[in-house]
Amino acid sequence: MPLRVALLSYRSKPHSGGQGIYVRHLSRELVRLGHQVEVFSGQPLPELDPGVGLTPLPSLDLYREPDPFRTPHWSEFRSPVDVLEWSIMITAGFPEPLTFSLRAWQHLRERLTEFDVVHDNQCLGYGLLGLRRTGVPVVATIHHPITVDRRLELAAAADWKRRYSVRRWYGFTTMQARVARRLPWLTTVSGAARDEIVTDFGVTPEQLRVIGVGVDVDTFQPATTDEVVPGRIVTVASADVPLKGLDDLIEAIAKLRTERDVELVVVGKLRPGGAAEQSINRLGLTDAVRFVSGISDADLAALFRSAEVAVVPSRYEGFSLPAIEAMACGAALVATSAGALPEVTGPDGHAVLQVPPSDVEAMTGAIRRILDDPALRRRLGAAGRARVVENFTWTRTAQRTADWYAEAIEAQKRARTC
User: Fold this and answer.
1) pLDDT value of position 129
2) Of 123, 180, 206, 311, which is most buried by a Cβ count within 10 Å?
3) Strands in 303-361 per DSSP E
4) Can you point out the beta strands (E) in 33-75?
5) CATH match for 232-391 among 3.40.50.720, 3.90.700.10, 3.40.50.2000, 3.90.1150.10
């Protein structure tokens, strides 16, 4: 039976960051399966495919480029929620999960008869509890608990002022845990993420369904001709934060540069003054590391095809879309064993060379091994492509998600009749 889905996303970067990618591809495949999907999003807005509806729920957009943490003009304030958003931001908190959920509640409570299910993507704000009280089934995806990011940033904090700032910024995670415990239908993308959510958010395993995400295997496919650029290493870092381990990879590049010409291409933005920029300057790698951002899926696929090695250096991943995108393109992959990465990429030596997180020597050695062994590079690439095609497509993700919706809707109907 066709379903009417309200898909919520508090921010939906189209070209980087898992939330925007998830929203675009899941909504497209649900529509292809015959369902009706309307996306509700704050800024940045997603890119969506034909047939998917979009209703913007505008915020004050306080973190927009090129002026993040901006001061809005008084005329931009339209509601008490806007005042709340501004108040939290100027006191060093991150307001968007809460304020987006309140805007979604205000908007959707007038339209709930139009939808069979409301699907929240990682927001977990208090407004969802208001929606749930109306009787509509409310389900949520938790890609991973943001408490993991908080722990890693606290560990990297240099002094008590920075630690206080981190705790204040991540204050919204307390709300997310409270909301998650009160939503009976949750999904996440891997067994590793499920275990972290159970531990950090205090939900029960029975609340969680594991539904892996996917890749567009037609766009992300191996080269038909030899497109590889000798010495090119590619990674994706949607943010320069400790979680992503980009500074570890930069250290490995510095070691490799002492023996050969290599180039690191980072898909993401260089954060001025961040750990990556500091490492690049300290190691004299300004001519060896290049950042690109805002590229299309086709351009990202071409970049992966041009790489001799793709690397996922993360200190934690709840899933890792870049890993399966690289594998789908037949790129030889080096990845850490952090979080869900072994679950996603498979056993060491089959479709990936695995290294311990933050082990720069092991990462350097694995990259060197692939650079020196074309046969190994071809074998890893072919095995990676086969693993993705078998396990990680958006069609598979959408079908499993639709089945999960149907179960939640049926459970809600049974609860009403009891």
Assistant:
1) 97
2) 311
3) 309-312, 333-336, 353-355
4) 36-41, 53-56
5) 3.40.50.2000
pLDDT of residue 226: 79
Among all chains, which residue has been given the structure tokens 């509601």? 79
Give just the sign of the alpha carbon dihedral 232, 269, 322, 304.
negative
Query: Which residues in the chain show pLDDT less than 50?
Result: none
| Tokens read off for 333 | 């992959």
Report the distance separating Cα 136 and Cα 112, nearest Å. 7
**Tokens linked to 169:** 């910024």
Enumerate residues 6+ apart whose C-beta is below 8 A from 58: 42, 43
Cβ atoms of 200 and 147 within 8 Å: the answer is yes
Alpha helices in 284-320, H assignment, sequence order: 297-305
Q: Please state whether 135 falls in left (phi above 0), alpha (psi between -120 and 50) or beta.
A: left
Residues of the chain with CATH 3.40.50.2000: 4-214+394-417, 232-391
Task: Count Cα atoms within 13 angstroms, Cβ side, for 401.
Answer: 35
* Distance of alpha carbon 333 from alpha carbon 106, whole angstroms: 45
Beta bridge partners of 235: 266
**pLDDT digit string (tens) for 325-351?**
999 999 999 999 999 999 999 999 999
Residue pair 15/128 in contact (Cβ under 8 Å)? The answer is: no
Q: What pLDDT, in 10s, does the model give residues 367-401?
A: 999 999 999 999 999 999 999 999 999 999 999 99
